[in-house]
Amino acid sequence: MGSHETSTLCTIALRLSNTKLDGRLISSYQEALQGDADLQCFENTLKTHIKAVINTFRNGGPSTGFFKQVTKYLRYLSEQSVHALLRCRVIGKKKLNRASEERFKLLVDEYTNNSSQMLDFCSELYRFLKAARDTHSYIEYVTQECFAMETAMGTRHYVRISKRLKSLSASGDVYGNFSSAERLLEKVECLRKQQEQMLEKLRVQNEKLEKKESSAHTWRKVTIILFVVAVAGLLISMIVTAVLAVPAVAPALGAAFVPMLASADWITNLFGTFQIACKDQQGENVCIQAGTRVSIKELGDIKFLIDRVVNEIDSLLFAPSSTIKEQIDFTMKDIKLKLETFMREIETLHEETNKCTAEIRKARDKVVKSIKILNNK
């Protein structure tokens, strides 16, 4: 398992080194920001979403909070894509000429493909969370069964508890469904590939628009916005892949990313920093990640408590003490509390994922309706 995760990280770093952001489009975006209140608002909100995602993984691997911010991020990107495309209605007050029709079709096709990949990701995330919820239910069942009998059984009761919890921890079920995490990674990979293709097509489109007169201003603005959306989408794909594949890399990425958002050239700097952070972690992760499995952070915290209560019970069996009994009771209550909290967070995240899916579908419907309106003019 460890070799797979380490190779995944190496692959991520290699892809980043091969990913070339179009300098002219970045320059066009930075120039367009000057004096454009809409673009400035767009950038500030985008940075806020990126920072929210980063802050959720600075203290470890993937958590329910991390996925919640990722889905909010995807919703925002979809919303901004649609707003940009609907600007074409202004252009479409008159019958679109052939060049404009082809241009609009290209932008719509890219948005449609991108949003389709987003929907696939949301669907797989839903299944991933279901696996986590099933894991929660299994842990809850085992822990409740352990304490279903009266403590009057004395030592035999604690031996029973220790045996069941050791079996639970060793089974790997406490980590959740690994195959579900693998499928989620596959969906992120599809999303990343589509975004890279979108960036290349937008680069070609921008080159054509640079040769046009000022009448192409709106088209260029739409292209620039979609370019930044694609870059932001590609960035989040890289982050999700890294955090899922190699959770140990998350703190280093978080610490490196936050200062970059304050710079004027934050897009280029974020990609460069990501590449460096991944490469710096490669050797270390060979040892750290060996034999581990993908897990939501909250499940890892619960496993830590399960292992701790097993050690406490073992101590009690070797040296009976009322103080140790009290500590066991305290730890078990802590497990129960964390299980309850985790279940609430999973339910909230399910709702957020459903909302993300519904809003992306609604946005796609708006674009389709807009196409029909423009084609009928």
From TrEMBL:
Identify the keywords attached in UniProt to this record, alphabetized. Coiled coil, Membrane, Transmembrane, Transmembrane helix
- Spell out the coiled coil positions from the record: 181-212, 332-366
> Subcellular location, in the record's words?
Membrane
Q: Name one GO cellular component term.
A: membrane
Residue ranges crossing the lipid bilayer per the database entry:
222-246, 252-272
Q: Which InterPro entries match?
A: DUF677
- Grouped into one coarse class, the protein's main location is membrane
The family annotation for this protein states: Belongs to the UPF0496 family.
* Protein's UniProt name: UPF0496 protein At4g34320-like
Q: Which organism is it from?
A: Prunus avium (Cherry)
